[in-house]
Amino acid sequence: MNLLTNLEQVKGVGPKTAEQLRVAGLQTVGDVLLFLPRRHEDFTGVVPIVSLQPGKVTIKARCEQITTRMVRRGLRLTTAVLADDTGKLNAVWFNQPYRTQQLGGSRDEFYFSGEFEYNYGKYQLTNPSAELAKELPVQAERLLPVYRSIHGLKSQVVRKVLETLRPLISVLPETLPPEIVATEKLMSRSGAIMAMHFPKTLEEVTKARERLAFEELFELLVASQLNKQENAKLKGWPIPFNKGVVKAFVEQLPFALTGAQRRAAWDILQDFEKGVPMNRLLQGDVGSGKTVVAGLAARQAAHAGFQSAIMAPTEILATQHAETLQQLLVPFGVSVGLLTSSVKGAARRELYEQIANGGVDVVVGTHALIQQAVTFHKLGFVVIDEQHRFGVDQRQKLLDKSQHLPHLLAMTATPIPRSLALTVYGELDVSILNEKPANRLPIATKIVSPVSAATIYEQVDHEITKGRQVYVICSLIDDNPDNDIKSVQAEYKRLKNTVFGHRSIGLLHGKMKPSEKDQTMRDFKDKKYDILVSTTVVEVGVDVPNATLMIIENADRFGLSQLHQLRGRVGRSEFQSYCYLMMSTTNKPSERLREIEKSNDGFYLAEVDMELRGPGEIYGKAQHGALNLQIATLADIQLIARAQRAATTFIKNGNDLVQYTQLREQVQYYQRLTTLN
Fold it and tell me: Global pTM?
């Protein structure tokens, strides 16, 4: 038997079990051995009910009574009475109705592990895990691994298979160079995997997690450094710096560049002069002026005879960029074209021709830019806005439209935590815009209860009377009977027919046709609407300086980074702006939500958000879910720094990946995933 052996050939694994494992993506012995637990339940300190103290506890008890009821839309409450020989206590689960089937009618003993706390006037066990005592391995009352329940796969099934395969774990090959294992004082790989599946102590689990997390980060960082090395060998277009051109552009701006904008622009202009293609990430907080920096670079490129392509994720954002760049560049004779799905027929064919013969210097567009029909005359500079929303293949198609690799500037208005920039974007040089224009006031942000809605609506009316405009943000498009989250359709109708019947209200959401969305945003910008009721489609880039107030409904359901992005749609002028975070309930707001109430710093909030929610939730699962990080967290800056040093030393010493097959395969996978070349 080896790691490639099919699980059906393993003793004790019948057809039914093999099918359960296969559906969960586990087909070979190696798949199961590397299917690591997501957490460990500590059954080493079982306490009788009579001796319980507040905090994390584990008891061994029977379920005497259990019921599930709908408390309100979207919330099912399951309550139970648990008993042992010393007493009884109440347990409660939120949205876990299957507990009734698991525990109801059984006289068996279970291990329950959860938070024993005082709530609603009594002590209770909150959301405890429940493991049937007789199904636990022989070493009962110990640390128990809990595995991800993919398509209903139960942890007991995985544990039984692993017990059979246990002897194989001790002979798993080492995947890291021995000098790195020794220098970093890491557990061996086989020892770490054994400790994850069959732990003896919490300290052992901690050391195992450190080893496996280090390995995951090391693979990712080696890949990004190798990508950077490969990029340095590529041939690009040298674009010479012209002081007069840059000076004239800056002097005609109706505002002064911030220090951060000047530094970022200088980084780009220096990269332009090199013989290798630029690979730079420009990250700026909302309203920090990224488009102006890109415009300055495009002006320099046009003067040297090169075209620029600027790709945005939505038609609204592409149109907005095109309008801004026309204002900035047309006075210097630089032509700007807009290519989106709305450009059709003769106009589209004419634009294709102008792009091909060099009649257009700067082309702004959506995915339409990467279509086969688009041919550039001499593409020297590519800007991809909100680049984490594009796949690697899409970026590659745009970069391929040039004889040499053009200079690449990836832009994002979502501040990226330092740890994420080091790993996922490790092959990129980074410039940061962390300053706002001088005339911008901090946005006054306040968490409010639903019962305060009337007071907030009074302020909305007051702002509109002053000539300002307002956003109301909802997370859903249509009503969902299974929850109580406000939908944009229902809220639009409610506000239009009741509170703000005397005001002009617009509706915007993702199911509308691109042309309809574009027209709605134009109408809002042209002040045809006092209030825009919208989904998060306005999250990125939409610029309406006259909008000074935003209400975000069900704000407690959003992450910090998204709330900050949404809030950034106001506060884009010299007028004082306000953002009200409307809670779903009258419950006390979380500490997480309090963070955005007290801070306007997107970089700080991004760090907090990643610690709480993980990078996949913030930057989209399509790209970051593919990182396959089972153990490592990209919020662990100290471990990343250690892995970064080890990766640098490893590559400096010859990066011999040949003798480490698994390491080589994983590094190559990450290279393909993250490369921008």
Answer: 0.72
The tokens for 206 are 């901690």
Q: Are 567 and 440 in contact (CB under 8 A)?
A: no
Amino acid at residue number 397 = K
Distance in angstroms (rounded) separating the CA atoms of residues 375 and 353? 8
% helix / strand / coil in the chain, to the nearest 5? 45, 20, 35
Task: Report the alpha-carbon angle 322-324-327, nearest 5.
Answer: 105
d(CA 406, CA 276): 9
CATH of domain 444-599: 3.40.50.300
Bin 74: left if φ > 0, else alpha if -120 < ψ < 50, else beta.
left
Residue indicated by tokens 């929610």: 613
C-alpha to C-alpha distance for 25 and 148, rounded to whole angstroms = 12
What confidence tens digit (pLDDT) does each residue in 643-662 have? Answer: 999 999 998 887 678 888 88
Question: Where do the CATH 2.40.50.140 domains begin and end in the chain?
Answer: 44-135
- The whole-angstrom separation of Cα 470 and Cα 580 is 11
Residue 141 carries which DSSP code?
S
- Among 130-139, 582-591, 620-629, which stretch is predicted with the lowest mean pLDDT? 620-629
- First-to-last CA distance in the chain? 41
Residue ranges of the chain assigned to CATH 3.40.50.300: 243-433, 444-599
CATH of domain 243-433: 3.40.50.300
Q: Determine the Cα angle at 163 with ends 158 and 168, to 5°.
A: 105
328-350 confidence digits (pLDDT tens) = 999 999 999 999 888 889 999 99
pLDDT at 140: 44
Those residues with Cβ within 8 angstroms of residue 392's Cβ, 6 or more apart along the chain or in another chain:
623, 672, 673, 674, 675, 676
**Kind and range of the H or E element at 246?**
helix 243-251
Question: Which residue is associated with the tokens 């109708």?
Answer: 493
CA distance 516 to 662: 50
Q: Is the CB of residue 81 less than 8 Å from the CB of residue 63?
A: yes
Cβ neighbours for 277, distance < 8 A, ≥ 6 positions apart = 231, 234, 235, 236, 237, 404, 405, 406, 407, 408, 677
CA distances from 12 to 79, 161, 164 (A): 37, 8, 8
**Cα gap 614→175, rounded to integer Å:** 26
Of the CA atoms within 13 Å of residue 493, those in its CB half-sphere come to: 7
Q: How far is CA 213 from CA 177, 217, 349, 635, in A?
A: 15, 6, 52, 12
CA pair distance 579, 570, nearest whole angstrom: 8
Domain 44-135 homologous superfamily, CATH: Nucleic acid-binding proteins (2.40.50.140)
